[in-house]
Amino acid sequence: MTTTRDLTRLSAAEMASLLSTREVSAVELTQAHLDRTAAVDGAVHSYLHVDQVGALAQAEAVDRARAAGEDLHVLAGVPVAVKDVMTTRGLPTTCGSRVLEGWIPPYDATLVTKLREAGMPILGKTNMDEFAMGSSTEHSAYGPSHNPWDLERIPGGSGGGSSSVVASFQAPLAIGTDTGGSIRQPAAVTGTVGTKPTYGGVSRYGLVALASSLDQAGPCARTVLDTALLHAVIGGHDPRDSTSIDAPVPPVVEAARRADVSGMTLGIVKQLGGEGYQPGVRARFDEAVQLLVDRGAKVVEVDCPSFDYALAAYYLILPSEASSNLAKFDAMRYGLRVGPSGVDAPSAEQVMAASREAGFGDEVKRRIILGTYALSSGYYDAYYGQAQKVRRLIADDFAKAYETADVLLSPTAPTTAFKIGEKLDDPLAMYLNDVATIPANLAGVPGMSVPSGLADEDGLPTGLQILAPATADERLYTVGAALESALHERWGGPLLAKAPELKES
How much is the pTM? Predict the structure, then answer.
């Protein structure tokens, strides 16, 4: 007899296989994950909203269709969780903020529509840093998520809910968004896989914008193949998104199954390593690179000098776009509305100010102020304009690097997961967590984080980042799957098998 524990620990591909042969039903599989959530999410806090009724209804529909002999998507019946920054018709979408507490959108994001059309039960909406501003999920207005490897530590951010829901076996697949590393950094610190597709490769329609030129939705999973299968579902052109690429989804599933790096050239980025990187993170990275060399890859060092200025440029561009995008939360049309105290007949401006003061958290206010200043008269050219020039130089560095290397490699994050509260009062220390991931967002190229082992210092997961040229997302999956295979041979199975078992309530 297959137990709930057994079902939730299968890969999404294995779940799909059992569903296709009707050895397990979509209802059984969905219920197993809901039971797992009931047992452990009180400690992990991956979800902001669980949709038991909707998920089981979708699962029942899939079972009926399968029994009737209908031709179904390969992932039909495989459950998925969605970051709470994507609009979901009939389900709350809060973006981790009090400003949107209780808001239920009247429409689905395009990628949510694609999940529904594929027959994937949506288990719920995952926790996140408020409006995706953060690297730890501590800036959620609804409390932090926790890392299943150590509940006193962060699961990354801003998508810590999506990484922890997968790492704690509450969902086999999840949707995240990545503006400066918010899929990849959480994957690294939780021992999972996460991909930021090429900018425009997955529709942003229905993604509540943080920084429109940087935001990109993508898949989170426990294996490279599972990540590719979800990428194939959500990718593709969308005429409702003006930045959507009008081209087929790259052959990511085929690449993940191929997993052959023989003859490929891997570029090690000179600027993404060394000082500031935890010794255990660097050691696992070097070992992982050697495993790829053992499988026939060639390694070269690449010099990307403008990467040294990526963090500074990013923290001018992102706040500038955020201050503009968040102006729509004005208490006039939807969301939180409060009146200023002691005012009998407040003006619209007073209501807006009071509502934004009450609804936005400290990190959001910090970035709005910074962005508004950078865009202000007399400072635009000196700050925002200069940052955009640096962005161009970073893109040029990528282009030059790809002349000699098929993909670029680096550690995903400079350290393993830190303790909750450890960096909360030091914004700069928090921002440095994304030093290796930010360049990809500035240039619009795709990136992936794959588990590379456990650091010697603390026994916590580390990640290896793979970067590829724009629209060549399949290269991520080729290299990622090859590394995953080599590491599984060394470890005797997936890294998450080494994680401590969560106590069930």
Answer: 0.97
